[in-house]
Specification:
Chain B: It comes from Sphingobacterium micropteri. The complex is a heterodimer of chains A (40) and B (318). Chain A is an alpha+beta fold and 40 residues long. Chain A is built from one helix and two strands. In chain A, a hairpin with a 4-residue loop joins strand 1 and strand 2. The chains are: A alpha+beta (40), B alpha/beta (318).
């Protein structure tokens, strides 16, 4: 668990394209496993 | 917005794993919103338990949980409106009441009627060795404008009504909804059963089923009569109160939580608090979601693959 947490935090800290202006809403269509991201 | 690189390619098995994982991320977001978890450690622990729960064999409840429910279900005199939730092994409620000798009427939405009607018939035959007759089992479609009248008439004839009050069907537009508090946060819920109790004079009996391994926990509260429309909200609060008393390890069995996330995600902003990022699986994108602020970030395929490997390692016992 610790290694997983550490890696996530590292990756998030170095990411530079955070979606600041919008908040996305994930909807998951379970039939086809697609995950559609809607911006609201 | 452009992807930084191509997303993971997936096999059908991996796709199901991704669906389950995304459901767990939505769960984690809601539990954080309700202040039931507050750190990576507590969140990942709950996700691990949830993943275990999602992967259990379905339809194993007959010999394990049904006898326990029959023993623990409170005895009542006369018809009741059993206000149930889609939590734990909820589908065994009907059989437990039928085995008590009660005639039951079940409110179902059209979408699941075609799928669940044969299942109910099958389960009855398995328990009793024959098909049910009309005095034992009735179904009412929630999409019908007369569903409450039909249920009232069935209650008058002595049937018990089973209704899953966390459903969203029936009625149209803004009517039929009220607000309750769940973990100190507002939640819009259907109030049809409160109306039915007032119309019929039959009390509501809420029931919540959860499991811990092979142990069944049955929670129920006493009869609640609804005498006027001013009591509708309080009646639904009475039902939801039991959910609100569940710890994180049990409320995660509530199937509605991912849907709640979809509904209220825009209101879940705690921007001033430290972010808690989790990977999510999105078509053609490698994403992290901060469940605290609701913000997203795209990462490279290489970074995401490394996290995916660690995620699989974390879930390895499966």
């Amino acid at each position: 668990m610790e290694q997983f947490i550490h890696e996530i935090q590292n990756v998030a800290e170095t990411a530079s394209n955070i979606l600041d202006a919008k908040q996305g809403l994930i909807l998951l269509t379970e039939n086809d496993g697609k995950c559609n991201l809607y911006y609201i | 917005m452009n992807s930084t690189s191509s997303a993971l390619s997936v096999t059908p098995v991996a796709k199901e794993n991704h669906i389950f994982w995304n459901q767990s991320v939505k769960l984690a977001s809601m539990l954080y919103h309700w202040k039931l978890v507050d750190s990576y450690e507590s969140i990942l622990t709950i996700i691990y338990i949830h993943q275990t729960y999602l992967r259990q064999e379905p339809f194993k409840h007959d010999n394990i949980f049904l006898p326990q429910l029959e023993k623990q279900l409170p005895k009542v005199d006369g018809p009741r409106i059993w206000a149930c939730f889609h939590i734990g092994p909820y589908a065994i409620m009907a059989r437990a009441l039928i085995r008590r000798g009660y005639g039951i009427a079940i409110l179902l939405k059209d979408e699941v009627f075609e799928e669940q009607y044969p299942t109910y018939m099958q389960q009855f035959k398995r328990s009793f060795g024959r098909k049910p007759n009309a005095s034992e089992l009735q179904f009412v479609r929630s999409s019908s404008s007369k569903s409450l009248i039909q249920l009232k008439q069935l209650l008058k004839k002595g049937y018990h009504v089973i209704c899953y009050v966390d459903g969203e069907e029936g009625g149209s537009g803004e009517r039929g909804w009220t607000q309750v508090q769940l973990y100190n946060k507002p939640l819009e819920v259907r109030m049809g059963m409160a109306i039915l109790s007032q119309l019929s004079g039959v009390p509501i009996r809420p029931v919540v089923l959860t499991t811990e391994g092979e142990k069944l926990m049955v929670r129920s509260r006493g009869d609640l009569y609804v005498n006027n429309r001013e009591q509708y909200s309080a009646a639904m609060q009475y039902c939801y109160q039991m959910l609100g008393e569940l710890p994180a390890e049990e409320i995660l069995q509530w199937e509605c939580i991912p849907r709640l996330f979809d509904k209220i995600a825009r209101d879940m902003r705690h921007a001033a608090e430290k972010p808690i990022w989790l990977p999510v699986y999105a078509k053609e994108k490698n994403m992290l979601l901060d469940i605290v602020s609701g913000k997203y970030v795209e990462v490279s395929a290489e970074q995401f693959e490394k996290m995916d490997a660690l995620r699989q390692e974390f879930l390895k016992p499966f």
